[in-house]
Each structure stands twice: as C-alpha cells, then as structure tokens.
Amino acid sequence: MLKIKNLHASIDDKAILKGINLEVKPGEVHAIMGPNGSGKSTLASVIAGKDEFEVTKGSILFENEDIQELDPEERAHKGIFLSFQYPIEIPGVTVTNFIKTAINETRKAQGLEEMPANEMLKKIREKSDFLEINRKFLSRSLNEGFSGGEKKRNEIFQMAMLEPKLAILDETDSGLDIDALRVVANGVNKLKSKDNAVIVITHYQRLLEYIVPDFVHVLHNGKIVKSGTKELAHELESKGYDWIKEEVTA
C-alpha cells in the first residue's frame, strides 16, 4: 500500500529525514517511535503532503503510484488520512457539516455524485453509535471548546466516516487521560480491516497496549535505525532510547 524508499526531506534548508525506508501492507499496523526531534511528525507530514517540507531525495509510492507531486487534498481523496497532534478549532463549522463537505469533496474527486442526505445521516448515526459519540457533540463547532479527549475522538469519528485506506495517527495519545486513550484506541481497533492500514506515531508504549502493532520502528536522527515487533516497544519503555543511540553510534 505504502512504499517509501530512501526518503530525504528538509524544512528551511535543514535536513530532517535522512533516508527513510518503510513498507506498509494492507491489514498492517505500524508504530513509529523515537525521541523528540527524531523526525516522526515530519514523516507523517511529508506522507500527507504538507508543503512546508521539501522532499530532496527518494520516493513515496501509494498503491504503486508516485504521490510526491500531489497536493494534500489529492492525497486525501486517494485515501490517506492524517490525524493531527493538535487539531485546530474552526468556529461556525459544525462537526456534521465539516464531515459532509469532506466526504462529498472526495466523492467529487472520484467522479461520484454527492452522497444522498438520508444515506449521509444513516452513516453519521451508525458511526457515532459505533464510537459511542453523543449526537449533541456532532452539532458543535469543530474542535471549539473541545477537551483533548473530545478533539481526538472527533478525529477518529472523521476517520470512521472517511474510511481511508491509510490512516496516520500523529501522537494521538498526547494529553489524553487513560479513559480517553481507551476510547480512541477502541475506535481505531474497530476500524481496522484487511483492506486498510494504520501508522501510529507515539512517544509512549502505553498506546500500544491498546492498539497492538504488527511492527515497531525506531526513528533516530531522521532514519529508521531499528525495527521489531511489539516487544521492542516494551524494551523502549523499560530502557529508554539511550541504548538505541549507543547502538547507532557504535
């Protein structure tokens, strides 16, 4: 589904990604961990197409198509979803109106008619019940006055409605208490299937207790320096990252 080869990227002429290689297949969950400043969020942003980052070398293939020249919305229409670390507030735009617009723009890009109102309403009801979201929540302005947990739950609701092929969760666990973490993880687990894939970017092993990864990759200084199974995440939790840094420089 996603194949990244020797990816280098910079911002303001400062190199951040320095040769990333990563392959993600349908049905897989990949966790990307690493110390602050290692390039985790940059990698998410580059896959999603944020234009402040410049790809200087390498390739990103999504379903065997080179997507480097595509705008973020074109990548989204092809099925790439990025959950933000800090979702922004959009006063005056309700959660429901936002999601209706997002779905219909994607359908338009795919040459489809707008989703009929009754079908949209049915889907909204199904997904909100599925994720245990109060319907009143859906009539509120997007993220305005939301708690950290509500913002993250809203992102998972968007993911459920858009049904992306590849979901990238960028530090979705930041600022969440254990109950909110469970709700978010439960939503992600319910949405997993053999046809989609998830990349979870996190500092902490605790999220991976709830969203169990098939693969764990450690990013350090712009490169994936170690890969393994969920046991690697446990090792990082108990030993920190210093041993990885020592291994790399040895």
From TrEMBL:
One Pfam assignment: ABC_tran
Keywords, alphabetical: ATP-binding, Nucleotide-binding
ABC transporter domain sequence ranges: 2-246
Keyword Nucleotide-binding: yes
Single GO MF descriptor: ATP hydrolysis activity
PANTHER family linked: ABC TRANSPORTER I FAMILY MEMBER 6, CHLOROPLASTIC
Family classification: Belongs to the ABC transporter superfamily. Ycf16 family.
Protein known as: Fe-S cluster assembly ATPase SufC
Species, as recorded: Paucihalobacter ruber
Gene of this entry: sufC
